[in-house]
Design brief:
single chain; about 150 residues; alpha+beta; Pnp Oxidase, Chain A; 2 domains; 7-stranded antiparallel sheet; 7 strands; oxidoreductase activity; Deazaflavin-dependent oxidoreductase (Nitroreductase family); F420H2_quin_Rdtase; Split_barrel_FMN-bd
């Protein structure tokens, strides 16, 4: 059992160290690893009831193909705030910004969202639960995506 936990602990330690370092090459290694290995697994659970991760469904800005990306979506008044630990140049974010809309699936509920805007962390922290201040500092999250939920009907 110890030998199974060792690689997991090492990966977690690398993740935390890379994110805290702010080093673009190290953060990109983590981002690519998540994109190719973790995200496909996470997408099986993201957006489901009783799971922490949400799912952003968006359309490719060049291909027009539908995509889904696991994220953390924090409900705020009028919509959601989504932390951007890998920065503001990730593909899914560029797709959402180009389309001006997306769907956030959180806790088994689909939410149509519009008006995506990237904002500095300071602009969001007063609107999210207090523990996000600590997470934002620990992982050096500089920006968040703020989206507005479309009122049903």
């Amino acid at each position: 059992m110890r030998w199974v936990l060792l690689p997991v602990a090492a990966a977690l330690a690398f993740f935390v160290a890379a994110m805290r370092s702010g080093s673009r090459p190290l953060v990109d290694i983590v981002r690519q690893g998540n994109k190719r290995v973790l995200n496909p697994v996470m997408l099986r659970l993201a957006g489901r009831r009783h799971w922490y991760a949400a799912r952003v469904e968006h359309v490719g800005r060049r291909s027009g193909r539908p995509y889904a990306t696991p994220v953390v979506a924090v409900p705020v008044e009028g919509g959601f705030a989504i932390p951007l630990p890998y920065g503001d140049q990730v593909d899914w974010l560029r797709n959402v910004l180009a389309a001006g809309e997306a769907t956030v699936v959180l806790d088994g509920v689909r939410h149509q969202v519009t008006q995506p805007v990237v904002v500095p962390s300071e602009a969001v922290l007063a609107t999210v639960p207090p523990d996000w201040g600590t997470r934002t500092r620990v992982y050096r999250i500089q920006h968040w995506l703020r989206v507005s939920e479309v009122s049903p009907g």
